[in-house]
From TrEMBL:
Catalyzes xyloglucan endohydrolysis (XEH) and/or endotransglycosylation (XET). Cleaves and religates xyloglucan polymers, an essential constituent of the primary cell wall, and thereby participates in cell wall construction of growing tissues. Belongs to the glycosyl hydrolase 16 family. Its EC number is 2.4.1.207. It comes from Tetracentron sinense (Spur-leaf). Residues 16-215 form the GH16 domain. Residues 1-25 form the signal peptide. PANTHER family: XYLOGLUCAN ENDOTRANSGLUCOSYLASE/HYDROLASE PROTEIN 8-RELATED. Keywords: Apoplast, Cell wall, Cell wall biogenesis/degradation, Disulfide bond, Glycoprotein, Glycosidase, Hydrolase, Secreted, Signal, Transferase. GO terms for cellular component: apoplast. This is Xyloglucan endotransglucosylase/hydrolase. It is an enzyme of class 2 (transferase).
Length: 291
């Protein structure tokens, strides 16, 4: 083989390995238990996960690799019955003191009372951007689709296809946006009765243990992150380039209408309206359009 043929083959191989930067990850091939493995399990064909909380401990999984941008889907059936004091979490996070994080957390409640969906985002180590919602369905009766859509223009939290929150990229105006470090994906079920139930008012009723949350069809249609990679490299590595596509850079007017419906009817806390907390000095993104 001549040198040019070898170079050609090397080029083909590098193109093929770049193509794989868009991966479809599921529990069995891409996650591991980082906590409470003794009483939790991956079931079925690797597409079902059960997390358990009892007096011995909670439990959790995390993805083996990090991702930068993508659409991260999780179907969740929350702890039924008296779940007060339990928190089921599903989030993306990097590590270190300047870490980024995108959160979905589900705060349990006593039987018949509504769960709270708690959302937050950390940029460069700073959170304090909470928004909370009630749900328009019983999240313990069936699986529902909680998807985080993260691209260079914006982050969108979706529930069953309805956007509930948007955090847009206003980096050019000095507002940090998570786009420089990869994040791993985590799910966990834990005892947060010192925090979740109105500041610890209600304690977990252990007579209802074990508490079980079920997860299904985790998919990270996302760009692999194996260390510092530039955004353009990451995006151009993708065969479809879909997260930079204009249709993902802004919600359609139909989606905006859905989000307005959710926020008008089900939002129960918005940090941007908490004037007392910030002493009137509202975070800068609160003055920007977030849709
Ligand atoms: C879950 O919701 C996301 C965002 O709307 C959507 O792209 C995805 O197709 C949904 N998945 C399922 C299994 O319905
Ligand atoms: C539980 O239900 C009560 C009564 O409806 C509600 O005030 C509270 O916000 C709910 N959520 C939690 C986590 O306590
Ligand atoms: C974190 O962000 C909040 C809201 O934007 C702000 O009030 C606070 O000063 C920030 N804290 C730090 C340590 O930057």
């Amino acid at each position: 083989m001549g040198t040019s043929q070898v170079l050609f083959i090397a080029l083909i191989i590098s193109v093929i390995s770049f193509d794989q930067s868009l991966v479809e990850a599921k529990f069995s091939n891409s996650m591991y238990f980082n906590w409470g493995a003794h009483h939790s399990s991956i079931l079925g064909n690797g597409d079902d996960l059960q997390l358990v909380l009892d007096k011995s401990s909670g439990s959790g999984v995390q993805s083996k690799r990090g991702f930068l941008f993508g659409s991260i889907q999780m179907l969740i059936k929350l702890v039924p019955g008296n779940s007060a004091g339990t928190v089921t979490a599903y989030y993306l996070s990097s590590t270190g003191s300047k870490h980024d994080e995108i959160d979905f957390e589900f705060l349990g409640n006593v039987s018949g009372q509504p769960y709270i969906v708690h959302t937050n985002i950390y940029t460069q180590g700073n959170g304090s951007k909470e928004q909370q919602f009630y749900l328009w369905f019983d999240p313990t009766a069936d699986f529902h689709n909680y998807t985080i859509h993260w691209n260079p223009s914006q982050i969108v939290w979706f529930i069953d296809g309805l956007p509930i929150r948007v955090f847009r990229n206003y980096e050019s105006e000095g507002i940090p946006f998570p786009n420089k470090q990869g994040m791993r994906i985590y799910s966990s079920l834990w005892n947060a009765d010192n925090w979740a139930t109105r500041g610890g008012l209600v304690k977990i009723d252990w007579t209802g243990a074990p508490f079980i949350a079920q997860f299904r069809m985790f998919r990270a249609r996302a760009c692999k992150w194996d260390g510092p990679v530039s955004i353009s490299q990451c995006a151009s590595n993708s065969p479809a380039n879909w997260w930079t596509s204009p249709i993902y850079s802004k919600l359609s007017s139909g989606k905006m209408g859905q989000m307005k419906w959710v926020r008008d009817n089900y939002m129960i806390y918005d940090y941007c309206k908490d004037i007392k907390r910030f002493n009137g000095q509202m975070p800068p993104e609160c003055y920007k359009q977030q849709f």
